[in-house]
Amino acid sequence: MENKTPHLWTNRKILISVGPGGVGKTTASASLALAAARQGKKTLVMTVDPSRRLANALGLSDLPNVAHQIPSEQFLEYGIELQAPFSAMIPNVKRIFDDLVQRSGLSTHRQLEIMDNPIYQRFSSTLAGSLEYAAIEKLYEVYSSKRYDLIILDTPPAQNVLDFLDAPQRIVDFLSNESVQWLIRPYVKSTHVSTKLLDLGSALMNKTLGKMAGADTMKALAKFVLGFQGMYEGFAQRSIAVQKLLREPQTAFVVVTSGQRQQQQSALHFSKDLRKQGFHLAGFIGNRMLTPNPLLTQPNLIEHFQVALKNAKIEEPNSQLSKALRFNVGRHKKATKSIDYLQSQVGDKPLVILPELAQSSPGLETLAELQRTL
């Protein structure tokens, strides 16, 4: 089906792909990046998806923490001649946090102390929000380098788009929270707080929470929080700069959904939340959707087909051929209804339908086919 909508990347430097889990955001993002590179945009697609689906889609065993340019020769056999470099990256979450520490201006001793801390090691890899923070941090870093005409960020699955956007600020709030500082005060020998201030409340915390979590754990938490004290201001300033970038007109969100009504409803809620928060919306992608076939819209098609079977002297007009046709007519009606519903809901924003393909797993052939629609 020929796409008459404008390019989703027109007048954009950053596209952020969002949507509920299971709609194929990674494949859609890679296809979108490939289409932009074919049109002459020096493009980078990034994903923080730990399952490495992007690497698999590009025919690679893995992707490094730095941008990896995909050889254009790989696409020639699929009839695609790139007009600009096409690169991909899967940022390493812990490496991103380590880079932040190393750029903090703290002494080498303080840096090593932070990175060796067991709380930091969990914080920089598994704490809720660290994945999202790392994604946006890397996005800002790459954008600031001005190496690309277009950056496409594939986000992790989220129940709500604001879970992704708010995660970095939640981490900043946690690191600067006065309650956390008070909580760990009894375990920090090096603080400038007088021992007289370790009052009954602090002693109680020492006896209760210290026993529950373990004194060593609380001491590690104390050292972790204190280690980051010199970085609070930098984290906060960076968060403000990132939020400003995400709201600029050159940055827009692409909402990805599928043919399933529940996922469509979730995607539409995503778009409403984005608009309420003042973000720009580039458009929608309906992924893995059955493309309606005009041949199946003919009136009385099944009846005419059964007559044709009789004229061809096929003994069982209600055989497997008739059942197959009836099945496909039903699928066509369902697909048309699904697309019509989405089109009625997206308003004036472009809706691009990516077809459901026969390939069992994403790869270069899949990306080559999908990018033609985009």
Helix and strand pattern: EHEHEHEHHHHEHHHHHEHEHHEH
Structural class: alpha/beta
In percent, how helical is the residue content? 40-55%
Mean pLDDT: 77
Give me the Rg, rounded.
26 Å
Quote the CATH topology.
Answer: Rossmann fold
For the report, how would you describe the main beta sheet? 8 strands, mixed
Shape-level CATH architecture: 3-Layer(aba) Sandwich
**Beta strand %:** 5-15%
How many distinct folded domains? 1
Name of the CATH homologous superfamily: P-loop containing nucleotide triphosphate hydrolases
How many strand units? 8
Distance between the termini: 11 Å
CATH class: Alpha Beta
Gross geometry: elongated
The main sheet orders its strands as 3-4-2-5-1-6-7-8
Residue runs with pLDDT of under 50 for 5 or more positions: 1-5, 190-213
So how many helices?
16
Assembly level: single chain
What do these coordinates show?
This protein has one domain: P-loop containing nucleotide triphosphate hydrolases (Rossmann fold), CATH 3.40.50.300. It is of the alpha/beta class. Helix 13 links the parallel strand 6 and strand 7. Helix 8 runs antiparallel to helix 12 and helix 10 crosses helix 11. It is built from 16 helices and 8 strands.
